[in-house]
Amino acid sequence: MSINILIVDDSKAALFMFEKTIQLSGIDLGSIRKAVNGREALAVLEKYPECSLIITDLNMPEMDGIELLVNLKNNPRTRKIPVIVITTEGREGFLAHAMEAGASASMKKPSRPEEIKNTILKTLGVQEDESKIGEFFKSDF
Amino acid sequence: MRAKLENFSRVISDIFEDMFFLFHDEPIPDHRPGNRSWYRICIAVIGPDPFSLHFSFSDKLARIMAENYLGLDSADISQDIAVDVIKEAVNVMAGNLLNQMNDESVLGIPEYQGVRHQLDPFDTETTLDLHVEGEWLRVSMQTRT
Asked: Is the Cα torsion angle B77, B80, B86, B91 positive or negative in sign?
């Protein structure tokens, strides 16, 4: 099953890094789309509803990750899409707030490529296919 | 304030290693930054004890960070890309500092304040200099009301 991922982060550098990491991970990827805040993410989802996973930063201007989660979970078309939140603030209270809003999992910045890949696969309940793992992750990165 | 800065120094070193594969050097006595361009980024910490952090990255350090983070050649690093990478670095550094403060403070959004040709004055109580790959980062912490 190909995975269609939407990445949401106000940092273009972080978007680039996540996109590259996922592309090199060996995950069976359909498409990657990007948005720079929650508002833009909702617009992307209107246009491309085939999204199977959302990875979003929490601290963003205009519409932050929590507000995005609330919008996603209130919309019957998007409420079942799993959401991984990325945060620099790994404090329990902060993450609990995101999980209450409907996040499926969390990642802390900075995350190593292996952690990013494992969190995506675990969230989607996908078994890792060793044959598809790129050399990128076999090296001691 | 100084204790918080010392703690922050360790956080910054860890982020340099984990995100950028860079290691900070021991300071060289009486070594001065000289004439350089500095990218200045500010981030607010909002909470019971509000303060702001002001970062000045030397131009060359910002470009090295961008090369390592994005895996691009130096020729492909524009000023916009370098600024975007150091804004992300500031976000991660400040967020990781908050993790250690154990209070209800939250982060603002990193704000780029332009290129400067002079550093803020060094104050032993509120300023921290870090040396990375022969380049400089100055961080100052200012209380907010």
From this structure: negative
Q: Which residues contact B23 (CB under 8 A, 6 or more apart)?
A: B13, B16, B17, B132, B133
Q: Is the CB of A23 inside 8 Å of chain B's CB atoms? A: no
**Residue B144: which region, alpha, beta or left (left: phi > 0; alpha: psi -120 to 50)?**
beta
Tens digits of per-residue pLDDT, A35-60? 999 999 999 999 998 999 999 999 89
Burial class (CB in 10 A: 0-12, 13-18, 19+), B13: middle
- Contact (Cβ atoms closer than 8 angstroms) between residue B78 and residue B55: no
Q: Which of A9, A60, A63, A91 best probes binding to B when mutated, by most B CB atoms within 10 angstroms?
A: A91
Which residue in the set A13, A16, A87 is minimally distant from B95, CB to CB?
A87
Question: Which run of H or of E encompasses A20?
Answer: helix A12-24
Write out the DSSP string of A122-133. Answer: HHHTPPP-GGG-
Per-residue pLDDT of B91-103, as tens digits, reads 999 998 888 877 7
Are A88 and A58 in contact by the 8 Å Cβ rule? The answer is: no
Q: For residues A34 and A113, what is the distance between their CA atoms, to the nearest angstrom?
A: 18
Of A104-108, A120-124, B28-32, B94-98, the range with the lowest mean pLDDT is: B28-32
**Closest to A60 (Cα-Cα) out of A92, A85, A33, A96:** A85
CB count within 10 Å of CB A102 equals 18
- Give the ipTM of the model, two decimals please: 0.81
Question: Furthest-apart CA pair in chain A: how many Å?
Answer: 42
Query: B82 to chain A: nearest residue by CA?
Result: A13
